[in-house]
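quick one: 3-methyl-2-oxobutanoic acid bound model?
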Amino acid sequence: MSVHKPVKKITTHVLLAMKQRQEKISMLTAYDYSMARILDAAGIDILLVGDSASNVMAGHETTLPITLDHMIYHAQSVVRAIDRAFVVVDLPFGSYQGNSKEALASTIRIMKESGAHAVKMEGGVEIKESITRILSAGVPVMGHLGLTPQSIYKFGTYTVRAKEEEEAAQLLSDAKLLEELGCFAIILEKIPAKLGKQVAELVSIPVIGIGAGADVDGQVLVTHDMMGITKDFQPRFLRRYLELFDEMKEATKRYINDVKMGEFPNDKEQY
Ligand code: KIV
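yep, here:
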């Protein structure tokens, strides 16, 4: 049974209409062709080529080392795989914070070289000029507030953000600003559920949460966490739908054993 209205391709207009008719938006990360093909075939609404590729694909501790070239490579692989999903690409650390000209140049490279549909940027009022410049070039922008991993060394930890009144007020004001500037959606990461609900009610654009509670317009998870490919990451907001690390490890052990015992290939598996 399908849980969403059959639409050919997801666009920013479709996403806005989903919010208006209170249909929840589903979003997952993807960094490569094969995974994106599966997620798109399953009917995911948005695929995020996240800079979490820095952790998940490259094994870095933070999202800071990934480059614009790396992001474009991942985005190209994902775009080749999709028929229906809307593809958003993270502007990586260092590709937009300098000035708005640099932000636009990075965005143009992503859009031209990958064929993706939108970019995502971490921050509020401090990146206002860059957002405005990118939007004026006709590129949809998704905002990202709350825990913004590119600023991890400023925060010092990955704990829940905006628990205090002052930070919560700043987040609400940033969310309103992102809407006024013309962003098509906002990601809220790791904030109290009550604040997530407040933001979703405050703005008319879709608000997608990761650890922001149930009362937002959609949810996003890192696919490798949700499938259980990563093992050590256990935040409260994460629901694992598979334990692929263990299943793939077992399959690999069986393969190794078959090879060692001379049981692979058998008569039917050769020419
Ligand atoms: O890079 C990423 O995967 C993200 C999600 C956590 C929203 O930004």
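The pocket of 3-methyl-2-oxobutanoic acid is lined by residues 29, 48, 50-52, 90, 187, 189, 210, 220, 222 (CB under 6 Å).
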